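Quick illustration, no need to memorize.
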Amino acid sequence: MSVNKKFNIILAIIFASSILPRFGLALYNREANDPHMPVVRYIMRNNNLPDKTECWECFQPKLFHYTIAKILSFLRLDSGQDGDAQKVVAQLINFLAGLTILIVAWIFVGNLSGVPERLKILGFALLAFNPQLIGINSQVTNDTFLILFSSISVFCAYFVLAKRMYVYFLLAVIFSALAVATKTNGWVTVIAISIAFSVRSSLSENTFVARFLFAATYPILVLSLILLNPLAQYIQNSQRHGSPLLLNMDPQPHPFFYKKTYTPYAGILSIQDGFLTFKLWNLLEEPITYLPDDVSSDSHRTSLWTRLYGSANSIHFENYPPSWRIADSDSPPYWLYRGIFILALLPTAIMLIGFITEIYETIKGVLSRNLLFLNNSSYGLFALLLAGHILFIILYAFEYRIYTVMKAVFIYPGLLAFLVFFMKGAVVISSRLQLENRYITTAFVLMTVLPILYTLDVAILILQLIPNQSGLLLVVDRLIKAWN
């Protein structure tokens, strides 16, 4: 058997193994981080798109909601008694979208050159079993659609930058427009791709006109598709509310640098405390989020980086939605969460090293006009992608300050960048530090344990939900009654 065939078989086993926790959670979950079903049901009842004022999540672009509404209507799940069945079907659609994300990552990993195969396998496993990704793939939210469309857009842009393949260029345009029509922060991906295309064009040997058209056509086409797409509601929002981009929250007074000021649902107390701290010890002491708002200054609720780290590595960290919550009296398995947070430090550090290396290579390549550096860094595509999503969550937390906006899922549209930086960081460490094989093997084994703990975290949640919910039989029963 060839080495490449063995590699794909191992990835296939990882992929297949990650299906069960996703499927189980999609069947038995009934709640989401945000109430998106009212938007779906409005569209089903009225055969029209709601305005921002109609419900809490009605300010969002409507591609996800419209798609779910039409599928539920086709399945005739449109009566009041079908509420839970509607949720399960919508979650199963996100489950399929989540599997598609993994297939894109699988193909992408296979196309990365200069990376040892065992490192590709580990990176793919960490992604496939990531609890935050499994969790969001099992809820009725628009995040999974956004992650999917953004990932495909970046995947296509990667090939455009490497080989100027125009079919991939058109696909990048289409899926970028779908990402923005799903959720507003899809624009971060569009901006990252636009800048990378501009860098690539500025170094092209073509004429000025050809270079300009290549750099300018992508954002113009994406913007045109968005303005023409009624599901984005940009024209309607501008006419009714004076802005194409809407939110359902009011900004809070901006924090001071050192002085701590408190807000409802306390999150960012000051710039120093919120953006310049990583409260690992507090996270290990209390590895899930409890609800009281009168938090102390050492609480991980007030530190952006601690919350991003916690929510990225445990499905229980956010302790929300309500049915996912673990009360103090339930003796939660803190040993599991603490083990996850300790072991996850290693891949996180490796990824940060890869991120810094990518930024360095991109800047050096631009300043020296060195095509070797720029090719190696995909003209800054992945550095721009992750930096853009991090900047988005920083601005979001700065503006609104509540701890509920400090979630790792907001940077998951940059999912492929995580893979790139993890692998680049590992290659840099092993080549420059010239570590002995025993150290490399030990690190590899420790990181291999992490997907196992991730799976246990998700399994605990599924077992927590099963006693109170029916699953697949509910959907089958409702579909039979609807069609009869």
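The chain is about 65% helix and 0% strand.
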